[in-house]
Specification:
Blueprint (H helix, E strand, L loop, with lengths): L1 H19 L8 H22 L11 H22 L3
Helix pairs in contact: 1-2, 1-3, 2-3
Length: about 90
């Protein structure tokens, strides 16, 4: 179940990151999911190091969502630059 949850969460984070980015991102659904999941994982890792109590909130964890989307946006931008796409 954890793998399915990671795929779903990665897809949502990746899709939201692409919505908030300017212009068109010419990447496929698979890379959107992968980069979204990586963004969420990196964001969780960073938040645990910088602000340990940030992830212990009741209800929706807005901080994790926002940081995950921002990190995923950075990863999508880096991926597009490495591929040479605009």
């Amino acid at each position: 179940m954890e793998l399915i949850g990671t795929i779903i969460f990665g897809g949502v984070i990746g899709a939201l990151a692409r919505i908030f980015m300017k212009g068109e991102q010419n990447i496929g659904m698979l890379w959107t999911i992968i980069l979204g999941a990586l963004g969420a994982g990196i964001a969780s890792f960073l938040l645990e190091r910088v602000w340990p109590n940030a992830l212990d909130t009741p209800g929706i964890d807005w901080i994790r969502w926002i940081v995950s989307i921002l990190v995923a946006m950075g990863l999508i931008t880096a991926y597009m630059k490495l591929r040479g796409t605009k």
